[in-house]
Amino acid sequence: MTAGAADRVAPPRPAGDAVARSGAGFLRLGALALPWNGRGVLVGLGCVLACVVGVVLALSVGDLGVAPGEILGVLLGDGTRIQTWSVFSNRLPRALAALGVGALFGMSGAVFQSVTRNPLGSPDVIGLSAGAAAGAAVVSLMFTSIPVPVGALAGGLIAVTIVVAGSGSGLSAPHRMVVIGIGVAAMSVAVVQFVLARAQEQEALAIAGWIHGSLSARGWEHVRLVAIVVPVLGLLTLLLSRGLAVLEMGDETARGLGIAVTRTRLLAVVIGVVLAAIGVVVAGPIAFVALVAPQLGRRLTRASGPGIAVAGLVGAALLCVADVVAQHAFGSPVPVGIATAAVGGVYLVFLLMREWRRASA
User: Could you report the per-residue pLDDT of 313-322, keeping only the tens digit for each?
Assistant: First the structure.
């Protein structure tokens, strides 16, 4: 596919009052303007219910599972020793980490799809997640004095910089970014393989499980990390929602409406990189959650804006349920990234075919 053909695949969305068409508005709290959508609130409540169902499944399905009717009692300290160990030392931190990582990937995907004005512009498709994984792998084995999150963040930023610079058009040519992102992801995988080749056997086994995207053996330290990052960066991203929604109308329209285009886009990209990098640090480069969650959120809410909050909730519910499926549906547990890749790959093919048909019409 040539660069010129790539640019013809999906033309930018037509300019117009996207916010008005969505029926959405903004809830103003003094100087703050937070996005508000009545349908989105109902969808969000449904996603919260799906997250609760996912956690109940995570605590109750399989060996040493706790019956749903006994979960509340165990959480309040009335369980047996085995039930307490199973819930607090294994299943609950894993389920909460899944919710947090899913929310991180969902919000990051919403940010990048809004910035690039294209449904393919998610962190895993443009190579960001793979770059963050390479950075984390290098730091964890070769530069152990540097915190792993710093390595993941650096790897993600380097990957995005290469993709944006290689596209030759900043963030305005999303399909060039996809093509270059595939190359960046391949180079990142090569870096991880190089690190694996130099690692000791136990270290190599740990990294091999992590690079497929896994929530196995995740503990309370991972829960604490996502519990800090999700609300802080989630609020910052929500505050950018109005600017991102206007940016989707086009740069000229956004400038006419008083939006600082370059500053808003740069800030959104940095936050999106951090969101994805922290998700990769906790669970590895889990595929397609960042691609699928924002699209599902937009379809459910019928909103044309980025839908940051709903994308995060959809991502949380998706990953929590997917992890339960990965643990219990295949005879023996498999990394959750393999399960999401199996389903997400089909969705990506559907998305690419739809984009090609739209471009050919």
Answer: 999 999 999 9
| Cβ neighbours for 321, distance < 8 A, ≥ 6 positions apart | 50, 53, 54, 57
Dihedral Cα 47, 52, 54, 56, nearest 10 deg: -170
The answer to whether residues 351 and 174 touch, using CB atoms and an 8 Å cutoff, is: no
The values of phi and psi at residue 33, to 5°, are -130, 100
CATH numeric code, 61-342: 1.10.3470.10
d(CA 134, CA 210): 11
272, two tokens: 């999106």
For 323, the token pair is 């992890």
Where are the domains positioned within the chain? 61-342
CA-only gyration radius of the chain, Å:
20
pLDDT of 291 above 50: yes
Dihedral of alpha carbons 337, 338, 341, 342, sign: negative
Residue-wise DSSP of 322-361: HHHHHHHSSSS---HHHHHHHHHHHHHHHHHHHHHHHHH-
Cβ(291)–Cβ(109) below 8 Å: yes
